[in-house]
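fyi for ur records
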Amino acid sequence: MRLFLRRYLPDPHYFRSHKRLRFLGEWLHDPQLWHFGRRSTVLGLAVGVFFAFIPFPWQMALAAAAAVWLRFNLPVAAAMVWITNPVTMPPIFYFTYRLGSWVLGRPRQEWDFEPSLHWMLQKAGEIGVPLLVGSLIVAVVAGVLTFCIAHLCCRWYIINKFRRRRRVIPRGLTGQIGQKL
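which gave:
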């Protein structure tokens, strides 16, 4: 998996030398931001999923800022934000609005989604608070679940990797194999 990601992700030197990212200075030179270790990748997944469910613009920038600040995998965090994309946003945010309305005990209002700034500003007062509350609940739950599942999957992979190694050459037989040859 690491080789696959390294093959298709841009080289960290590209980002470090990019003229529009120079304002970040030495922050992008931290090796932890580009490391695909278990801790760094799992945190990148969890924080990326968390910011994916926050209904604010610049989700990738927020996830990247969190990755730089907390020193975990930047490309993974930025990529996971794309769970919410133009196709998935309406159903996800409608669900979070309904959840927020239910938690706050507010009556649910029927509305048709229009992807325009005028519509969003008009409806912000009516649906803003329930949408934000529901989104925060879903973001925290999804982030924690992603962290737990990814951490368990990594542990399972490592344990199975060591078990496979042990099956190839069982303990105590390494000396016997050398004597028979």
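The helical segments are 2-8, 12-17, 38-52, 59-70, 74-80, 89-104, 117-168, 173-180. thats all i got for now
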